[in-house]
Design goal:
The protein is mainly alpha-helical and 96 residues long. It has one domain: 434 Repressor (Amino-terminal Domain), CATH 1.10.260. It contains five helices and no strands.
Length: 96
């Protein structure tokens, strides 16, 4: 007997997982890091530069940019400022 797979979208999977309070709590903890990574990746791609080019502009290594974009690092404010300057973007912080 052949099993039919039901494919679901990323958004459907996320909606299902968000019903779990533990998952929701952990997801919300990662949201600030996700926003930082998404903004940096977006700005870099709009400027059509590589991670290596961004790293050179920001006076850091390509691996640092990779970890930052991959959410595998806890960046310092100093690093974020250098990356923002290298991309000609501003950092804004809101504490609510």
């Amino acid at each position: 007997m052949k099993h039919k797979r039901k494919w679901i979208t990323h958004e459907e999977l996320k909606a299902e997982l968000m019903k779990d309070p533990g998952f929701r709590r952990e997801y919300e903890k990662l949201e600030p890091e996700f926003q930082i990574a998404r903004q940096i990746i977006g700005a870099r791609l709009r400027q059509k530069i590589s991670q290596a080019q961004l790293a050179k502009r920001a006076r850091t290594g390509q691996a640092v940019i990779s970890r930052l974009e991959g959410m595998n690092a806890k960046p310092s404010i100093s690093l974020l400022e250098r990356v923002a300057r290298a991309l000609n973007i501003k950092i804004t912080v809101a504490i609510q």
